[in-house]
Amino acid sequence: MNSNKVLASLCYFSVFFAGFIFPIIVYFVSDRVEVKTHAKKAFLSHLIPFATIVLFVIMGISIGIFHQSGAVDSMPGLVLIGIIIAGIVNMIVVVWNIIKGIQVLK
């Protein structure tokens, strides 16, 4: 099996073991354009779950502030919806990375 394909595939599979650090390292170390392209795509896909978690934390803090002031009474429901949406987005990203990693190996 071609080592470049394995390295590119590991960039996608690193969602399980190294987060977005591994694709960054591969991007700067590798000299192959194909591997760099896959490393960049994997890095961007690894940032999506991080971004949803950051947005969820910001939303939770702002909801907590509004809930303490008595402005809105349905805030816990919105927090639950945010958790569900973030979970769905993160699962889609993980499945997408698995599919792309397998496609690169073929």
TrEMBL record:
Pfam families associated with the record: MamF_MmsF (PF09685)
InterPro entries cross-referenced by the UniProt entry: MamF_MmsF (IPR019109)
Source organism superkingdom: Bacteria
Keywords: Membrane, Transmembrane, Transmembrane helix
Bilayer topology: Multi-pass membrane protein
Localization of this protein: Membrane
Membrane-crossing segments per the record: 6-30, 42-66, 78-99
Identification of the protein by name: DUF4870 domain-containing protein
